[in-house]
Structures are given as C-alpha cells and as structure tokens.
Design goal:
Order of helices and strands: EEHEHEHEHEHEEEEEEEHH
Number of strands: 13
Strand content: 25-35%
Largest sheet: 6 strands, mixed
CATH superfamily of the largest domain: Response regulator
CATH topology of the largest domain: Rossmann fold
Length: 251
C-alpha cells in the first residue's frame, strides 16, 4: 500500500489495482488536478480502508479479481464513502458490470494518459463538490443548544463545522440521540445561523457531534462560507484548481 502525494490536495482517491502502469498513469493525472492517491493491490485491504477512512474518489481495476465487484458496492453502502465519485478500470463486458455495481465513470482499457486525463476532467467538478461536502472547518465560536423538552439551554463552543453538522464542547454532556436547536454566528455573518440538529455522539467530557436536520435561513449560505474557508486552507496552486471547478461559489 502506498500514499502518493501526501501534500495538501483537493481530495484523495483510493485506487485498487495491481497494474503498475495503470497506477502510474492515473496517479500522474490526479497530481495535475491537485489530488493525492492511496493505492492498494489487495481487494480485502481496500474493503477495510473503505470502512476506516473517507475518500473523495474510489477507483477499482476490474481486472483485480476476487472481491473486486463488491468494492464499489461496499463503497456505496458505507457511511463514509457512499457519495464518493466511483471509477472503474474496465474493458468490454466489464464496463457493464462496473456500472451495475455503482461506478460513475469508466477508464477504458487499454489506458492512455490522454483518455485518463479527459475522464478525470469531466469528473473533477463532482470530486470538488464531494470535498466541499465533507470539509470540516476548525473554528471556535459560541453556540447555544436548546434541547427538546423542559431542559435548560446549554452554552458551549464549536470545535469544527461542516455542511452537515458540527462538533462542540459543552459544560454538561449531551446524550446521543437527543434533538434540539443550535444557534451560532460565523465570522462575517450579520445574524446567527439556526439549525435543528441531532446528537450523533457524545462523551462524559462534554464533547459531542451534531448532525444538522435543517438549517435556517438557508444552508447555501453555510455552504458558500465553508467553500471560502476550504480555499483558504489550500496552497495557492491547489486553490486555483479549486476555484476553476467551483466558480459559482461567491468570493
């Protein structure tokens, strides 16, 4: 197993293949798009990684054999990678099988750098969207939590915020499964954001993770703010490619 391109990137692709030439071609094309690669030659190791880590793209060589047809299916059913952009390296009848398993794109064999690059450029906007969706911005701002029922309001601080939720610390533990309303104001916002949320996890130290059920006034405001923060976390060479694929996000 190798990790090619540990530098800051727009996203990471999990590449399952034993073909050194294919790995090299895809890795070089991904580098041009500011993406890093985790390559793995064994299907069972890929399946383990899908349960342990988040990837923006999953790429499977249909010539790998063994459990190869289950890799994309498991990615589609895993909590972390069900929305990852899925590619298959395939030819002939293998392409139909790959699409049936849930692949979004096909690298047709025999591979060549031009066709790989073209396929990735077509898919790049989806990969950027996936990166935005899962970006957790580290930030500490005051947050209030009003739990449903006759519970007193809890004051805490955010640890990080994403499009779908936030992590926080509070002086009292929050019970997993509890629902309520959270309010917080992000830098440069004139008014607070309010979200109906559910506690997904918590511990006795007062740390908790909340999932947003709805956001008021508009989730798109939060999405745009997060996109700007993500861009600022990237080196300029990477941010330039990010801007090219997310120009609809206001600066």
């Amino acid at each position: 197993m190798t990790n090619a391109g540990a530098q800051a990137s727009i996203g990471t692709a999990l590449l399952a293949s034993q073909d050194a030439v294919a790995i090299g071609q895809i890795t070089e094309c991904l580098k041009e798009l500011a993406m890093s690669v985790e390559s793995c030659a064994e299907a069972h190791s890929v399946l383990n990684l899908l349960n342990q880590r988040k990837f923006e793209a999953v790429m499977v060589d249909m010539r790998l054999g063994g459990e190869v047809t289950t890799i994309i299916e498991q990615a589609r059913s895993s909590p972390a990678n069900r929305t990852a952009v899925a590619f298959a390296i395939a030819g002939g009848d293998q392409a139909a099988s790959a699409f049936k398993s849930g692949a979004n794109f096909i690298f047709q064999t025999p591979l060549n750098p031009e066709s790989v690059s073209q396929t990735l450029k077509v898919a790049f906007g989806l990969i950027v969207r996936e990166r935005r969706r899962n970006f957790r911005c580290p930030i500490c701002v005051p947050v209030t939590i009003q739990r449903k029922g006759a519970w007193p309001e809890v004051l805490g601080s955010t640890v990080n915020i994403s499009e779908n939720g936030l992590a926080l610390t509070a002086p009292v533990p929050l019970m997993a499964g509890v629902q309520g309303t959270v309010r917080f104001t992000l830098p440069a916002f004139n008014s607070p954001l309010e979200a109906e949320a559910k506690v997904c996890w918590s511990n006795p130290k007062g740390q908790a993770g909340l999932f947003f059920l709805s956001v008021t006034p508009d989730r798109s405001e939060l999405q745009a703010w997060l996109a700007r923060q993500l861009e600022q976390h990237l080196p300029e060479s990477v941010a330039k490619k990010f801007r090219q694929s997310s120009g609809e996000i206001p600066k």
